[in-house]
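This is your field. Please look over both lines of this record.
***
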Amino acid sequence: MDLVAPVVVEPLRGRRCSECRRGPLPRMILEFNAPVCLDCADLGHLVFLPRGDTALTRRARENSTLWAVVVRHNRRRTRYERQGLLVEEEALARAEAACLADAEARARRRARDAERRAVRDAGLTAALEAEILRLFPSIPAERAREVAVHASVKGSGRVGRTAAGRALDPGAVTAAVRASVRHVDTPYDTLLMGGVPRHQARTRVAPAIEAVLRAWRYGGEDGHGRDRG
């Protein structure tokens, strides 16, 4: 049998229980579109467990015969968002004890997961660096590494973290190198600080950027790279 948990609402404005007339209510349920306090809804004996600890929430829910989801309306996002659960106090106590008992094991697991992510991140950076050197053989090695590290920072949304970047798409890799040249090798940032609109600033520095990219791609001194002579 599928379980259907009651939904408890944290109202944004004062509401009174339609049955006992108490209020304002910090939490309530809606029955036939009328507010009902938790005591009248037979949920008053439950305790609140805020969201955030996934293991504790799962265990408390599994140990609780009766539980409810607590939500609050987000006006900016125009949707209800989960705030936590209401569970039986004894269930919460058992869940807390279980989490304390295996806290060390879970900490070790998190550490192993972090190590695996670090290895994957290092692999992504190394692959991106190798592709930069392949596309731009005259770029200084330390600059290639710098671009790869910057472009692949986790959570940055930069080129190295896009699907195209992870696939080492030449266009995406070139975009990462071009962005580095724009900020490091041209007066682009100075133009922006001087009030020049972004599109105009980009147009002004475009020839200098392309000169550096050509030098790094085909050899020469314009890109501060190795002269392939």
User: Anything to note?
Assistant: The beta strands are 7-9, 28-31, 34-37, 47-50, 68-74, 79-87. Residues 155-161, 225-229 have pLDDT under 50 and may be disordered.
